[in-house]
Amino acid sequence: MTHQPAPQRVALHTRLKPGKEAEYESVHAVIPPELDTALREAGVREWRIWRNGLDLFHVVEVDDYAAMRAALRDHPANVPWQARMAELLAVEDDYSGGDTGIGLVWELPEKE
């Protein structure tokens, strides 16, 4: 039996353009199947998004966050998705930076 290493858990913060809340949620109700496949093939195990007003908070569990972003940067399923998100987000993600997510400050330790 092969032991799979623990995934990275990365927190992200994005912000919607005013008035785009319902549209953002509608677009995310069902993502394109080819994007789902691309995310999973890039090592994403889970991706959850919470919204508070215009602020979006993401938690991504992924094998390797930097490798995932590199794999998705020019992926034919991700490019049109990012173009669509650019219409809704205050700051678009062009995958050009060294994004590492929000730094962890504290977490409840596991009991031994």
TrEMBL record:
GO terms for molecular function: racemase and epimerase activity, acting on carbohydrates and derivatives. It comes from the Bacteria. This is L-rhamnose mutarotase. SUPFAM superfamilies: Dimeric alpha+beta barrel. InterPro entries: Dimeric_a/b-barrel, Rham/fucose_mutarotase. GO terms for biological process: rhamnose catabolic process. Coiled coil: none annotated.
